[in-house]
Amino acid sequence: MAQNKKKNKTAVTITSIVIAALLIAAVVFVIIWANGHKEDKPDDTAAPVVTVNPVESETQNVVVVTDSDTVDTEPVTDTEEITDTESDTEPDIPVDPEISVDHSRTTASSTLENGAVVTLDVDSPKVTSDSYGENVSKLNDLISSEIEEFKNSYALALSDPEAAIDGDGSYTVTYEVSRARYGTVSILLKFSVDNGGAHGSTRCEAINFDLGSGERITLDSVFSVERDTYVDFIKQYVLTEMRKDPDAYFSTEDGALDDSLDTEQFLITATGIRVFFQEYDIGPYTTGVPTFDIPYSEIVGLTAY
After folding, report:
1. CA distance 218 to 134
2. Residue ranges covered by each domain of the chain
3. Average pLDDT, integer, range 281-298
4. CA 64 → CA 54, 75, 76, 128, distances in Å?
5. Which of 73, 207, 238, 284, CA to CA, is 20 to 30 A from 249?
6. DSSP secondary structure string, 237-284?
7. Can you tell me the distance from the alpha carbon of 46 to that of 43, in angstroms, rounded to the nearest whole number?
């Protein structure tokens, strides 16, 4: 009997040991398994997470996660539209960078025996270009010759005691550039004289020049039709414009321009041909220098271009 109790006690001890060993092994297994499959917990200091929702159209919704609980949704367009940096600005009107017009200024002043002061103020244009060689010099020489002739009249006024100077006087040269591109230069020189009378006077001289050929441009080279044809056209166009304000002119009847239209006095502009007359040619002093712009659209079929 005592022997059986001893055996039972031994069996219980062995069983306890086995169970304990199994429990220890189970705990170790669980620890090893947990370490092998453990997921990193989110770090509060980690960078914000950006989540992109599935694309349902051409526009993506980007969810920006901020440090707070607020979530903002911002539309982002297609990638090609984002990287497109082309300007919608209209292209510049083409110009000829090879031609420029600079200027120089000359001033002088003299006192006559009668105490009158006569001044000279000359603003001279000078064309520059690296593409047209000696033809640029030809044009500048042509401009200079016109201005030098005017300067001579100033010198004459100073040396001639019979010069009609009543009080102070002035001799002035100014200019306007109506075109300087594609080898064509069109400049208007204005020569003004004031001899101290009731009012001064102004004479205009147009210089139209082809830098390519080195020749002066005339209306004969602009128009492709016979001279009588384009002259009649210009007269009729100008008379039509004059009749819109007849009081500004001596006459607006047919033939009023027969003796006053100078086919050398015109300018080439960006929009057409500008015809002008000298003071007193077709109107009183108050009319000034009458100018008339003829659009290119009106001379289609008549020009050589």
Report:
1. 20
2. 50-77, 100-215, 221-298
3. 96
4. 15, 11, 12, 60
5. 207
6. HHHHHHTTSGGGSS--STTTTTTT--TT-EEE-SSEEEEE--TTTSS-
7. 5
Same topology for domains 100-215 and 221-298, yes or no? Answer: no
Find the mean pLDDT for residues 16-21: 65
Q: Quick one: which H or E segment has residue 30?
A: helix 2-36
DSSP line for 79-91: HHHHH-----SPP
Beta carbons within 10 angstroms of residue 299's beta carbon: 20
Environment class of 201 (CB within 10 Å of its CB; exposed 0-12, middle 13-18, buried 19+) = middle
Classify residue 238 by burial, with Cβ atoms within 10 Å: 0-12, 13-18, 19+.
buried
Q: DSSP of 4-24, one letter per residue?
A: HHHHHHHHHHHHHHHHHHHHH
Residue 170, pLDDT score: 92
At residue 297, the 3 state secondary structure works out as: helix
**Confidence label for 45 from pLDDT (cuts 50, 70 and 90):** very low
Query: Can you tell me the distance from the alpha carbon of 202 to that of 150, in angstroms, rounded to the nearest whole number?
Result: 12
CA distances 24 to 15, 28, 40, 134, Å, are 14, 6, 27, 109
Average pLDDT over residues 127-133: 92
8 A C-beta contact, residue 293 and residue 271: yes
Return the CATH number of 100-215, one of 3.30.565.40, 3.40.140.10, 3.40.50.300, 3.30.1240.10: 3.30.565.40
Inform me whether the pLDDT recorded for 20 exceeds 70.
no
CA angle 282, 284, 289 (to 5 degrees): 65
Give, in words, the CATH class of 221-298: alpha beta
